[in-house]
Specification:
- The longest helix has 27 residues.
- The chain is mainly α.
- The protein has 2 domains: about 55 residues, Arc Repressor Mutant, subunit A (Orthogonal Bundle), CATH 1.10.10; about 140 residues, Orthogonal Bundle (Tetracycline Repressor, domain 2).
- It has 9 helices and no strands.
- The radius of gyration is 20 Å and the shape is elongated.
- Helix 1 packs across helix 2, helix 4 crosses helix 6 and helix 7 packs across helix 8.
- Helix content is about 75%, strand content about 0%.
- InterPro entries: Homeodomain-like_sf (IPR009057), HTH-type_TetR-like_transc_reg (IPR050109), HTH_TetR (IPR001647), MT1864/Rv1816-like_C (IPR025996), Tet_transcr_reg_TetR-rel_C_sf (IPR036271).
């Protein structure tokens, strides 16, 4: 159905942009970042290379747009976990499991979020905003755990959220990239151990 205030030209431009992004995402999934070239995207989306420049920009702009989509996909995983019922411990465990699932099921997107192209400050800020949004939800869980008497009162929720994310992200990055002995282990096995260490520290002497 035709949308009010839109022309056939603007609808065609939007459709081209969507086709370009879908093509880039498919290439990333199948071959990693190296597979996402302007020529390959143009062929898969059935558009001219110039159309890519007109609708999105060069390769870095495409990768940034794909990174934004990856973050939104990650947010879908995480939001579902944050809505888990139960106490703060259960919600924190669900959040860690969701982030692990995202990393293992979408390894290329996971890697891209850790190292997005940065030639467009506005889009980079949008990615940073999405990260801050997710960390704020993690902070809320940590706050709730203190209020529920599960964890020590001197645990700074904001700092703890940043450190917890960095620790889990780092462990998963090593596992996904195969740069440690973790590549030989099932994340389903080492994730509970990591959480056990974290929760033990959070539940230390309640000063």
């Amino acid at each position: 159905m035709k949308q009010p205030g839109t022309s056939s030209t603007s609808r065609r431009a939007a459709a081209n942009r969507e086709a370009i992004l879908q093509a880039a995402c498919a290439l990333l999934d199948s071959g990693g970042p190296a597979a996402v070239t302007l020529a390959a995207v143009a062929e898969r989306a059935d558009v001219a290379v110039q159309t890519i420049y007109n609708r999105i920009g060069g390769r870095d702009a495409i990768m940034l747009a794909v990174a934004e989509r990856a973050m939104r996909l990650n947010r879908e995983y995480m939001d579902s976990a944050y809505e888990t019922s139960g106490d703060a411990r259960a919600r924190l465990t669900a959040a860690a499991a969701a982030y692990t699932a995202f990393a293992l099921e979408h390894p290329h997107e996971f890697r891209l979020l850790g190292d997005p192209p940065a030639d467009d400050s506005l889009r980079t800020e949008q990615l940073d905003d999405l990260v801050r949004e997710q960390n704020a939800k993690l902070t809320e869980i940590l706050d709730a755990g203190v209020a529920e008497g599960l964890w020590r009162r001197d645990a700074d929720p904001v700092l703890t959220a940043d450190l917890l994310f960095a620790a889990l992200d780092g462990v998963l990055r090593l596992a996904v990239d195969g740069r440690s002995t973790l590549r030989e282990r099932d994340p389903a096995a080492f994730l509970p151990r990591l959480l056990q260490i974290v929760l033990h520290g959070l539940a230390g002497p309640r000063t």
